[in-house]
TrEMBL record:
Superkingdom of origin organism: Bacteria
Designated name of the protein: ABC transporter ATP-binding protein
Entry keywords, A to Z: ATP-binding, Nucleotide-binding, Transport
One annotated GO molecular function: ATP hydrolysis activity
One Pfam short name: ABC_tran
Domain ABC transporter, residue spans: 4-248
Database matches in PROSITE patterns: ABC_TRANSPORTER_1, ABC_TRANSPORTER_2
InterPro entries: AAA+_ATPase, ABC_transporter-like_ATP-bd, ABC_transporter-like_CS, ABC_transporter_ATP-bind, P-loop_NTPase
Originating species: Desulfatitalea alkaliphila
Stored SMART domains: AAA
Length: 265
């Protein structure tokens, strides 16, 4: 059984428009309905890291929100661990996303957010400390988010997500807004963390290089209404390097072409 099974998933956002745009608006009776995901069938296996690529606005975040149970499918089903997703799951899923830290809480408090249910203070403290150290933030436990660099904030978010020991880690554009070097370093840390923890991890990105360097598999979505364009296993050895691996750079060129940007090749 796959960890996540997506069958015939379609998502239509229903618009609220009541006034027709023109007298003879052909869409008059459909309002502003937007077909975002069009009959998606996918399965994600236990422990794999899958990178989902697609142009902006194609529905990547929508797909993640549906898997996480924050949004309902219009048609079709999503099952996690064999059970149909009916709403957000508190323990098994944690969404790691940009600017998710609470500004009024310290690094220590933010990392401990998902551990409030642990009564044993000593146990809780060591879990927090272990994860603070894992992302190399020791010494910064009592800093507030605004006192940290962008990369440190992102590492604190990662520690918070992993501290709850989720079965599934969902990341929506985890490196957006980071400077180049921090982006590279963070990417490497997420790869190392995945090698170590082997949690099922879904990473949405619009960065082809991120997807090819990180993923055990990639899924490429077309523009809206999104359908699956490509599912590809990446069995290139790690650490991956475009210069040293001609197969990897060939695949990168093919995906650029597929996404309609031949000039980037
Ligand atoms: N809550 C919503 N209500 C209506 N339309 C939405 C909503 N969320 C997203 N959309 C629309 O759905 C499309 C896909 O959005 P999104 O999933 O955020 O794309 P991506 O993450 O790939 O950039 C966009 O056209 C967006 O405007
Ligand atoms: Mg998005």
């Amino acid at each position: 059984m796959s960890h996540i099974q997506i069958d015939n998933l379609t998502k239509i956002y229903v618009g609220r428009r009541t006034q027709p745009r023109t007298m003879h608006d052909p869409e008059e009776h459909s309002g502003d309905n937007v077909l975002v995901l069009n009959n998606i069938n996918l399965a994600f296996e236990e422990g794999e890291m899958v990178c989902i690529l697609g142009p902006s606005g194609c529905g990547k975040s929508t797909l993640l929100r549906i898997i996480a149970g924050f949004e309902a499918p219009t048609y079709g089903t999503v099952k996690v661990g064999g059970r149909k997703v009916r709403g957000p799951s508190d323990q098994s899923i944690f969404v790691f996303q940009h600017s998710g830290l609470y500004p009024w809480m310290t690094v220590y408090e933010n990392v401990g957010l998902g551990l409030r249910h642990i009564d044993d203070e000593e146990d809780k403290h060591s879990r927090i400390q272990e994860h603070v150290e894992m992302v190399e933030l020791e010494g910064f436990e009592h800093y507030y988010p605004h006192q940290l660099s962008g990369g440190m904030q992102r590492r604190a978010e990662l520690a918070r997500a992993i501290a709850v020991n989720p079965d599934l880690l969902i990341m929506d554009e985890p490196f957006s807004g980071l400077d180049f070097l921090t982006h590279m370093k963070m990417r490497e840390e997420v790869v190392n963390m995945h090698e170590f923890l082997r949690k099922t991890t879904l990473v949405v990105t619009h960065d082809i290089d991120d997807a090819l360097i990180m993923g055990d598999r990639i899924v490429v979505l077309s523009g809206r209404p999104s359908a699956i364009k490509l599912v590809h296993v990446l069995d290139f050895p790690r650490p991956r390097n475009f210069e040293k691996d001609p197969g990897l750079s060939r695949l990168r060129s093919e995906i650029f072409l597929m996404l309609g940007v031949p000039y980037a090749v």
